Amino acid sequence: MREALIVCPKNDNDGRPLPLVKKRAVRFLADTFGGCTVREAEGAWINPDTGDVQQEPVWEFTVACHDTVTVRSLLHSIAVEIGLQADQHSMYLRYPSGNVEIIEIARAEAALVGAA
User: Fold this and answer.
1) How far is CA 104 from the centre of its chain?
2) What are the E-state strand segments in 47-107?
3) What was the pLDDT predicted at 35?
4) How many domains is the chain partitioned into structurally?
5) How far apart are CA 74 and CA 27, in angstroms?
6) Which of 3, 14, 24, 65 is the most buried (most CB within 10 A)?
7) Residue 9: its H or E element
8) What span, in angstroms and rounded, lies between the C-alpha atoms of 29 and 12?
9) Quick one: which H or E segment has residue 41?
10) Could you tell me the residue range of the domain that residue 31 belongs to?
C-alpha cells in the first residue's frame, strides 16, 4: 500500500469556515479506505493576478491505498467533490504513486457535466 493526500482549505474563498466539508470528507474517506489521517497545515502559492504570496490554513487528508487506475480515479473524484463543496478554484492531490496534480475545479466540473 501507499499513501495518497488531498489538501483542503479550512475556509472558503470568502473566509467562511468549512467544518461540514471536513466532516463529510473524513466520513467518505474513512468509509472508502477504512480510515484517514487529518493534519492541520498551511498552504501557500503565488497569486497569478497580483504576484502576491497567498497563505491559508488547510487540512491534509492522508489515506493508505493501493496504486490502481480505479483508486486514482476515485481520489480525483473525491478531490473534485471536496473542491466543489468548498467553493475552491483548485485542489492539490498527491496520488499513491507520488505524482501530484493541481486540479482546476471549474475545468473538472465542466468535464463532469460534458460526460453526463
Assistant:
1) 11
2) 53-65, 90-94, 100-104
3) 97
4) 1
5) 15
6) 65
7) strand 2-9
8) 20
9) strand 37-46
10) 2-115
Confidence (pLDDT) at 72: 97
- Kindly tell me the burial class for residue 6, based on how many C-beta atoms sit within 10 Å of its own C-beta (0-12, 13-18, 19 or more): buried
Pair 16, 107: CB distance under 8 Å: no
Which CATH number belongs to the domain containing residue 66 in this structure? Answer: 3.30.70.120
Per-residue pLDDT of 50-79, as tens digits, reads 999 999 999 999 999 999 999 999 999 999
Helix count (H) and strand count (E) of the chain?
Answer: 3, 5
Q: Is 72 helix (H, G, I), strand (E, B) or coil?
A: helix
Q: What is the Rg, in whole angstroms, of the alpha carbon atoms belonging to the chain?
A: 14
Distance, CA of 91 to CA of 9 (rounded, Å): 9
pLDDT of residue 116: 56
C-alpha cell recorded at residue 44: 501557500
Cα gap 65→1, rounded to integer Å: 5
